[in-house]
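Everyone, carefully examine this protein record:
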Amino acid sequence: MLWLTECIYCGNFVYHLADGRLKCSVCHKKTSKEKINKVITLIDAFSKSETALQASKRLHLSYLSVQRFYEHFRVLSAAICEREYEELREISCEFEEYFYLENIKKRKREALFDAHNFLTFDYGGHIYTLLMPSLYKYKQQMLDDGVEDAYIETFKKFKRESKLIKLSKKANNILSFWEFFEENILRYKGVDYEKFGYFLKEFEFKYNHTQEEVKNLLISEYFKV
C-alpha cells in the first residue's frame, strides 16, 4: 500500500519502527498506520456525504471524535475553496443572492433574523459562495427602533423576486448549486448557526468536485506539511 511505504507528509521513504509506527527518512515525522487508516476512512465517509452520526455507528467510533474530524474536514474544504477562488477571481462571472431559512422557521416572523444570506458566483462553471454578514446581531436594535415590520416587508418582497427568478430563468449552474445545497443541508437536520459558513463551503467544495476528487484533495490537504 502507498500509505505504508511513502511518507504521508512529504512522499519520501518511511521506516517501520519497532513500536509499529512509521518514521520518514527525510522529514523525520512519525505516525501510526492506525491513525492514517482512521483519517483516510473518515475522509472517505465524509466525501460520500455520510453524516458523522452514520459514520460513527458504522465504524464503531465515538460520535464526538468523528464530529471533530468532520469539523476539521470542513475547515480544510473551506481553505481549498478559497485557494481555488484566488485562481479564478479574474475571470468574469455571474452571481445571484440567496436567502436560506430552515423550513420549520419560515412561518415565524422573529425567525427572519436567523436567515442566512449568501452570494453565489459562477466562474465559468466553478461555483464560489460568499456568506453575507448575519442579521441576528441587529435583531434587538431593529426591534428597539421599530423597523422590524419594514424589514419583514422587504424580506417578503425579496423572496417573491427570488421565486420569480427561479421560475423564469433557464436552468443554470447557480440554480443547480442551490438545488444541491437545499438537498444536502437537510441531511444534517439542523445546523448550528455559527458553523453554517463551514457547511456552506462543504457543499461548495463537493459541488465543484467529484467524490474521488474530494477524497484525494482532502487527504492531501490533511497530511500536507
Observations:
- The longest strand covers residues 116-123.
